[in-house]
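User: Once you have settled down, look closely at the record that follows, taking as long as you need, and be ready to discuss the fold:
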Amino acid sequence: MPECHTIPCLLSPWSEWSDCSVTCGKGMRTRQRMLKSAAELGDCNEELEQAEKCMLPECPIDCELTEWSQWSECNTSCGKGHMIRTRMIKIEPQFGGAACPETVQRTKCRVRKCLRGPGMEKRRWKEAR
């Protein structure tokens, strides 16, 4: 038998790399090439696709807060006062994420009227004695 000569397969050039698979953070990108003609007297074992990792700027992380606490007691025992409630920051914003909204709220409260008058001062003075 005469000696066989193999002719390698013909491939197109590699395509440009694709865009990263994510818009921020870690992802993958790929490129391909085409088989132009099969190898004669043999197999074409060349790879037709390649993949690699890609890294874009970190993804924004928005502020996260706990639920509101219960309203506090009114800060006065009579008359006008205020109550507050709070919430804690669980995650600080990062990489341009949404800022934290308020963590303390205050509202007015009114408890029974305070007893004041000319007779009250004398009564208190007598009780103090």
